[in-house]
Structure formats: structure tokens, C-alpha cells
Design brief:
221 residues, globular, alpha/beta, 5-stranded antiparallel β-sheet, DNA primase DNAg catalytic core, N-terminal domain, 9 strands
């Protein structure tokens, strides 16, 4: 059995997403093309500590570091900005991680402290969760994700703990994942209720501000 590291640092080839010039420009343009205003890009980069990479194993990927509740780096996930490249998401190898993505949740380093804390919305992927937080934070709605369509025992325990802090816990998956949504909501128990996307929206990462605001306002009513 391979012994995992107990601490982790971001590699030097991962650069903070802080500018729209030079090597960072294609990564910012990718987010803008996904419907993010420039001020939204800088906000998301700040709260989620987004980085970018132009060489090595995570070349041309946006890097989403994953931290625990005390800010300890556990692992990271890279999302390609190259069209039609598979896999779209790539995680640090399990043997090099403190914890694999599937055993934790995104945003734990701030979900325990932010206010108002009215609802946490559980999504499939990182950019789904970021989109929820972007448009929901003013209402006290914050996103997190499972990094997939399964929920592990550690994730269930973390969500149970978060349910003590948030008034509501919702599950919001892609439009074509209704069966998985039902199964996950059953697994997560009565405190986690499934939520449906507005008509014509395929996944939470496609939500526009008016759609998100309306959905979250109805959810909290």
C-alpha cells in the first residue's frame, strides 16, 4: 500500500489567475466565454484560489485547489480549456494527494465561516458550484460539489455537518441526471432535497444571473 503525503503544495508551474495578459489571457477568455464578466472572474479566482498551468501534466488547464476547513491543501482538479479535449477534468493522482476529490467537498475552507449561511447547494462539478456561489452568495446560497455523480461516506459526513450550519441543503445536478439526483438525495437523507434546473438549462454551470436569482429566491421562500 502506497503511503500518501500528509502535506501538499501547489507546483511552481501553477500560476495564480490574477491578470488578463500574457500566458493567463486564454484562461480568462475561457471563463468569459462561459458567461463570466471580468469582475466575476477575479472574484471566483480569489475565493477559489484559481490557478492556471501552461506546461507539464496539467498543461492548458484551469486549476481548482481543494482545501479542508482549516485551509489545508488536500488535492487539486484541472479543467481543460482546450475544446473537445478529454478528459475535461483531471485530478492529482490519488497516491500524491492528501485526500482524493471524491472524499471531500469544494469550498470547505470558507463554507464554515461565510455569512449569511441560508443554503448550501450540492452540485456535480467544480464550475457548477462556482456558478451557484457567484449568483447565490448575496442571498446566502453557496455551492459545493461532489466531483462526480457518487457520494462517498466521508462526503456524506461532511454534508451532515454542514447541514447543522445551513438552514437548507439542496442537490442540483445536470438536467439529464434525474435518476442520479433521486438516488443521491435518498442516500443523503431528508436534509438534502433535490432541486430542478430552469427549463432549457442543461447544467448549473450554464445558469445566467436572472435564472439563478429566480431559482434561489423560490428555493428560500
Amino acid at each position: 500500500m502506497v503511503e500518501r503525503p500528509t502535506s501538499l503544495e501547489l507546483p511552481t508551474e501553477f500560476k495564480p489567475l490574477q491578470t488578463n495578459t500574457g500566458l493567463a489571457k486564454p484562461f480568462v477568455e475561457y471563463l468569459v466565454n462561459r458567461g463570466y464578466a471580468f469582475e466575476d472572474v477575479w472574484w471566483a479566482a480569489s475565493i477559489y484560489d484559481l490557478h492556471y498551468c501552461t506546461r507539464g501534466d496539467f498543461q492548458y488547464r484551469l486549476i481548482i485547489p481543494v482545501y479542508n476547513e482549516t485551509g489545508r491543501l488536500l488535492t487539486w482538479v484541472g479543467r481543460t480549456i482546450v475544446p473537445d479535449q478529454n478528459p475535461r477534468y483531471k485530478a492529482l493522482l490519488a497516491e500524491h494527494s492528501v485526500t482524493i476529490p471524491g472524499d471531500t467537498l469544494l469550498g470547505l475552507n470558507f463554507l464554515w465561516t461565510i455569512r449569511p449561511a441560508r443554503a448550501v447547494v450540492v452540485c456535480e462539478g467544480a464550475f457548477d458550484a462556482i456558478r451557484v456561489t457567484l449568483f447565490g452568495r448575496a442571498l446566502g446560497v453557496w455551492g459545493t460539489c461532489l466531483f462526480g455523480l457518487n457520494v462517498s461516506e466521508p462526503q456524506s459526513l461532511l454534508l451532515e455537518e454542514l447541514s447543522e450550519r445551513f438552514e437548507h441543503v439542496y442537490l442540483l445536478l445536470d438536467e439529464d441526471a434525474s435518476l442520479q439526483s433521486f438516488r443521491l438525495s435518498q442516500r443523503l437523507g431528508s436534509k438534502c432535497r433535490p432541486l430542478r434546473l430552469p427549463a432549457g438549462v442543461g447544467d448549473p454551470g450554464e445558469l445566467k444571473a436572472p435564472q439563478a436569482t429566480s431559482l434561489f429566491a423560490q428555493m428560500l421562500a
